[in-house]
Each structure stands twice: as structure tokens, then as C-alpha cells.
Amino acid sequence: MVEVIARRRFAHSGRRTIGEKFTVSPKAALELERKGLVEVVRDLDVPPVAVGAKSSASPADPVSPQTTAEPSRRGGRRKKAAE
Fold first, then answer.
1. What DSSP letter does each residue of 27-68 carry, written as one string?
2. Is residue 75 part of a domain?
3. Is residue 28 a contact partner of residue 22, using CB atoms and an 8 Å limit?
4. Which secondary structure element, helix H or strand E, spans residue 7, and what is its range?
């Protein structure tokens, strides 16, 4: 469910007045927001993240430096050394 605040007066499961907070489904919240009738306050399905709390997810591995083959000095194949 999503908590929203009405921006205008309208009828959705009863009369809604300006500034009224109520909950609707995510799909209904999206439609009402597209029409400019409500402002989404928060998604009640997603728990709030505590400030400063460590994530339970593992940290990402560092990226390995990309190695590239160096071209020959003159741009052609290397020749065998003459003896």
C-alpha cells in the first residue's frame, strides 16, 4: 500500500478533501498521481532504512584494472632478429 495526500478534492472510495492522507494500492497511487490529484508520501511496503545502519548485503568487490595489449612500435608485426 502507498500513503498519499490529496492535492485537490475528488471522489475515490468516498470524498477526499485537500490535504487528507489516505492509503491506496500502488497502481491506484500511480494513476491518481498522473492526474495530479495526489502526492505520494511513502510506500508502506518498503521498510524505512535506519540512518547509519550497516546493510546486510556484502560489499561489492573492487573492480580489476583493465589491461590492454600494447601495439607494436611501428604498427606492424615484429620481425625475427637477423643473426
1. HHHHHHHHTTSEEEEEETTSPPPPTTPPPSSPPPPPPPPPP-
2. no
3. no
4. none
Could you tell me which residues are beta bridge partners of residue 23? 3
How far apart are alpha carbons 62 and 34 in whole angstroms? Answer: 41
Express each pLDDT in 22-50 by its tens digit: 999 999 999 999 999 999 988 776 666 66
Those residues with Cβ within 8 angstroms of residue 22's Cβ, 6 or more apart along the chain or in another chain:
3, 4, 6, 16
- The residue range of the domain holding 15 is 2-43
| CA-closest candidate to residue 2, choices 58, 41, 52, 59 | 41
Q: How many domains does the chain have?
A: 1
Relative to beta strand 10-11, strand 38-43 is unpaired
